Amino acid sequence: MDMVMETEAGGGRVTADAGGGSATVGTEGRDGVAANGQGDGGRGASDAAQRGGPHGAGAVDEVEVEVTEGGVPIMDPPCYVLLHSLSKKHNGTAVIRSSVGLGVRCIVMAGSDKFTTFGCHGSDAYMDFKHFAKLETAVEWLKVEKKCEIVGIEICDGAKPLATAPFKGPTAFLVGNEGHGLTPEEMALCDWFVYIPQHGFGTASLNVAVATSIVLYSFAQWAQYPEAPREGYKYVLHERKNRTSTKGQVALHTPAEKAAGRAAARAAAAAEAEVAFDTDLFQA
Predict the structure, then answer these.
(1) CB 263 within 8 A of CB 252
(2) Which of 4, 190, 236, 273 is 20 to 30 Å apart from 137, CA to CA?
(3) From the CA atom positions of the chain, what is the Rg in Å?
(4) How far apart are alpha carbons 273 and 275 in whole angstroms?
(5) Is the peptide bond before 77 cis (omega within 30 degrees of 0)?
(6) Residue 43: which pLDDT band, with cuts at 50, 70 and 90?
(7) Nearest to residue 220, comparing CAs of 171, 180, 269, 185?
(8) Averaged pLDDT, 192-219
(9) For position 177, what pLDDT does the model report?
């Protein structure tokens, strides 16, 4: 079903086909300022254009955006989020919601194929998910199939400040654990790292979901993603796709994916049982 929504405040419209196709997205802002920062009320070229975004400068009133079968806008160049070691459920839901709002193409989950939807406010239904049993396999898929650079979000030697991050094209951001950040094994899979410079002295780092959201916003600005249409004080939603899996679980579509998922679950259960056995032996 096609859906056309006119936006009064946003000055644009969106046409979406829930079965895959294209969407027309208006890019004029609330004050008549184009999404790239130019216009009668603008302040000149945006930071994205100054930093050499992939599409160049110039006001665009309306652009055609392709959508996936699930109705996710196909922004170019694509951005992916790779989740592996988050331990706090609320951070996962915050990352999902921000990813939906900031144009992420797909959230790739390695290890567990389950996530909490509480706090997503239904936004998870507007995102494509893909699951891999092992992080290394997920990285290989992103690099080989999607031609992504793997960028770790981490405060470490050699990391690039976000404001000058040298984005080039398709990018997958690897998100670390809330406590210890990225592990050495995870860092070894990254092509380079980005960090957010802080200006206060009362916290050692930002919350992982907050940091991820800031990085995703910066990438969207660099890539010059068109702004979604607005109506009143909110952004316009298109038709929600039908769920193809249990709520809060990534759909495993192919027999190979299902077999790999079952094998990973068996391996995790066996490892857990072995640890419990060793603990019992030690206590005895």
Answers:
(1) no
(2) 273
(3) 20
(4) 5
(5) yes
(6) very low
(7) 171
(8) 96
(9) 84
Instruction: Please choose, from the candidates 137, 98, 45, 57, the residue with its C-alpha nearest in 3D space to the C-alpha of residue 215.
Output: 98
Quick one: DSSP state of residue 83?
E
**89-101 and 208-223 helices, crossing angle to 10°:** 10
Query: In a 10 Å sphere around its CB, with 0-12 CB exposed, 13-18 middle and 19+ buried, how is residue 225 labelled?
Result: buried
Residue 6 has pLDDT above 50, yes or no: no
- Tell me the backbone φ, ψ of residue 65, rounded to 5 degrees: -120, 125
**Residue-averaged pLDDT of the chain:** 75
pLDDT digits 0-9 by tens, 261-273: 667 667 767 776 7
CA distance 180 to 197: 18
**Exposure class string for 232-248: b at 16+ Cβ within 10 A, else e:** eeeebebeebeeeeeee
Identity of residue 91? N
DSSP 264: H
Place of tokens 């990225």: 182
Q: Distance (Å, rounded) from C-alpha 120 to C-alpha 273?
A: 33
Q: How many CB atoms lie within 10 A of CB 58?
A: 11
* Residue that has been written with the tokens 């921000």 in this structure: 98
